[in-house]
Design goal:
single chain; mainly alpha; Tetracycline Repressor, domain 2
Length: about 140
C-alpha cells in the first residue's frame, strides 16, 4: 500500500513538473492531493495512518515508509529548487523545509480524517493556496 501511494505521489509530482510555472504547479499539486484524499475514502486514509503507527513498532515497516517518504520529498525538493532557480519562489527559504512543511500539512490532514474530524477540503485548499502564494509572491519580488 505504501508503495502504491508513493507511486501515485511521484506521478503527480512528475506531471506537475511539466505544467509550467511554479504557481500553476503548486496549485495543481494541491488540488490533486486533495482529490486523492477525497476519492480514496476513509479506509485509505486510515490504512496510511495505521502504516505510520506500525512503523513505530516495526523496523522493517519503518524503513520502507522512511524510504518511500524520502523519495517523495526528494522529488518535491527538486521542484522547489527548480522554481527558486527560475526566480518563481522565495530563494531565501530552504527547499527541503518547504517540502517537509507541505508533506506535514497533508499528513496532519490525513490524521484528522482518520479520526473522523470533518475537514472542508475546499476551505483547507484555499488556506494552503494562501500559504503557497506567500512563498511564491516572495519569489516574484526577488
Amino acid at each position: 500500500m505504501a508503495q502504491e501511494g508513493e507511486r501515485r505521489n511521484l506521478a503527480l509530482l512528475e506531471e506537475a513538473r511539466s505544467l509550467g510555472g511554479a504557481r500553476q504547479v503548486a496549485h495543481n499539486l494541491l488540488w490533486a492531493f486533495l482529490r486523492r484524499l477525497e476519492e480514496g475514502g476513509p479506509e485509505v486514509v486510515c490504512l496510511d495512518v495505521e502504516l505510520v503507527a506500525e512503523a513505530t513498532r516495526n523496523p522493517q515497516v519503518a524503513e520502507m515508509m522512511r524510504k518511500s517518504l524520502q523519495r517523495v520529498q526528494e522529488a518535491a525538493v527538486a521542484l522547489v529548487r527548480e522554481a527558486q532557480e527560475r526566480g518563481e519562489m522565495a530563494r531565501d527559504l530552504d527547499p527541503t523545509a518547504i517540502a517537509q512543511v507541505l508533506v506535514a500539512t497533508f499528513q496532519g490532514l490525513m490524521v484528522q480524517r482518520a479520526l473522523g474530524i470533518a475537514v472542508d477540503s475546499g476551505a483547507f485548499g484555499t488556506v494552503v493556496e494562501a500559504m503557497l502564494d506567500g512563498i511564491l509572491r516572495e519569489g516574484e519580488e526577488g
